[in-house]
Amino acid sequence: MLCSIYKSLKKDNTYLYINKKDDFADVPAQLMSTFGKPQFVMVIKLEGRTLALADVEKVKEALRTVGFYLQVPPPVTNLLDQYKADKAAK
């Protein structure tokens, strides 16, 4: 399965995976508005590949069922809360 990957110029570390290059027909208009103008990154083959921040099986399933997959950055860890939790555990 091939897919095209685009990055958002509005949202850092946010990527959109679609089935066919430049075919955003399956992506909701509101998502495209929030995502901004997509910047093409690459076309990749998903079989036998691992992805850095996304589960390749979830990506393939989303592409089959919904027509797109949105990869958002992981949540930022609040270091103060982590420090307080570590201190309380000691």
UniProtKB/TrEMBL annotation:
PROSITE patterns listed in its UniProt record: YCGL (PS51648)
Originating species: Photobacterium phosphoreum
SUPFAM superfamilies: YcgL-like
Domain YcgL per the UniProt entry, residue ranges: 1-84
Protein known as: YcgL domain-containing protein C9J18_01710
Alphabetical list of HAMAP family matching this protein: UPF0745
